[in-house]
Amino acid sequence: MTTPAAPEPTEPPKPEKPGPGPGQAPEExxxxxxxxxxxxxxxxxxxxxxxxxxxxxxxxxERFPQYPPPPPLPPEAYPTYTGGQGYEYGGYxxxxxxxxxGMGVAALVLGIVGFVLGPCSILAIVFGRIGLNRVARGEATxxxxxxxxxxxxxxxxxxxxxxxxxxxxxx
Length: 171
Hints:
Layout lengths: L59 H4 L38 H12 L6 H18 L5 H28 L1
């Protein structure tokens, strides 16, 4: 059994306009209005008639082919966030104070240099005392170094004073 074929659509007949009558001038053809190009800016950002698809143009889906989505990436392609704790500060509160051990080290170095240059021993005593105060407040951790610089500063200062006294008595 066969199905009957659908009839082909036919265009309806256009009514013929009667030509100009006797004594009438022929009609001029009507031209459509000129539209600005699509790149023209309209006030208020309204879309113009150029942004609409033309009646005979294919739809947006027909103009551009639809490609399948890309395959998923393998799990080892990018590291994932594990939701860790972030910076470890030991719970709530302020981060720990940065240790400032410079004064103790400077006191030790100046205490050693004080054997050669006497005035450096005075700086070794001052820096050693500042370093010991920082250790007492918990800002530094090098108590032994600061104490050694402080003691060396005292020893070298006493040796320089004794040396100056002996040199002065020999003259």
